[in-house]
Amino acid sequence: MEDIPGPDEFRADARSWLKGAATARPAHRERGRGDDSVAVFENWTEAEERAHTDRTRDWERTRYDQGWGAIGWPPEYGGRELPTYYEQLYRAEESGFDVPRRTEIFPVTQQLVAPAIRIWGTAEQKRRWLRPMLRTDELACQLFSETEAGSDLAAVRTRAARDGEGWIINGHKIWTSGARVATWGVAVCRTDPDAPKHAGITVFLVRMDAPGVTVRPIRQMTGGSSFNEVYLDDVRVPDTDRLGPVGEGWRVTLTVLAAERLDSGGLGLDNADRALDLARHLPRPLTGGEQQQAADLFVRALVQRLIALRVTAALAAGREPGAEASVGKLHATATMRATTDLVQQLLGPRLAADTGEWGTFAWTEHLLGAPGYRIAGGSDEIQRNILAERVLGLPKEPKGTGR
Asked: Is 76 a catalytic residue?
């Protein structure tokens, strides 16, 4: 299309707009001052989470209203209909400015839930939800995981039963990020208990303030509550809030999960960079082993960025990344483990003692949070299964083999 700006022109325009809308960040982070948090999952109270959400939402609305939000969406949804990877070009420019950091609820709403509604929603649902979600007037969380259906999401037990023109939902969801600030929850429910596991599922959008919805924070090892469990007790949902056909919910769910894995390219890279900065400024010479660990982390972070570029290239070619996204997710969790290993080696006992020294005890939040991403967004084992089946062509293991 002739009216699409080239990547360099687009980035220059974005940079120019950002200079007038936000404050540029210093080229180099000043050590010893400012926030030293490296939390993987935020350690906030509910009031802190709401305050940060409001600040981020104000910025997202500004972006949207000025034509820098919903970049890849059609004009009817407030977008510019540019190639998908232009959003990543914009993010690269935005990273140089002091804007509120997007917590998980924002990419979930804009990059997971909204695209699923665009694919599976009715014309009325698109009218009701897409613009408000892209502008973040409405925020959505994922009511997916259950205590006995985590990585095996198709084993959900939350039940939705017909009730006249609507449905009544009963069940329990867990590990829900953003449930305290979300206006909607995308709930994966079983509507036919007699159907094969993947066939009896339907997806609904549930108002998080509806009668019967109870959100209970889950206290983390670090003291805060990023996650929540959500109880659904006789929650009434109109059929107009059903997303996709009855019994086709597994296909809807896969649409959301595929988008989730695409968003993991930058996972943990900022903390990897901070760990390498710690190694550069350690008040003693690095040992040979520490030098090797730091070099390994540097290379891992570089490779992770290259994998993210491959995902971008696939999007630019109009192809949905499959293997690239799974490889990226696996590599990201490995980078996070390597970050932890290096920091433990560099800080030693200073990591475990809350002395008030900047950039030391704060690393415990990374150490305790990073293992969670081996499960979040599709466990490492699930990613390996995807690669084995879709790349290597290996058959699924028959049930009952005992291996």
From this structure: no
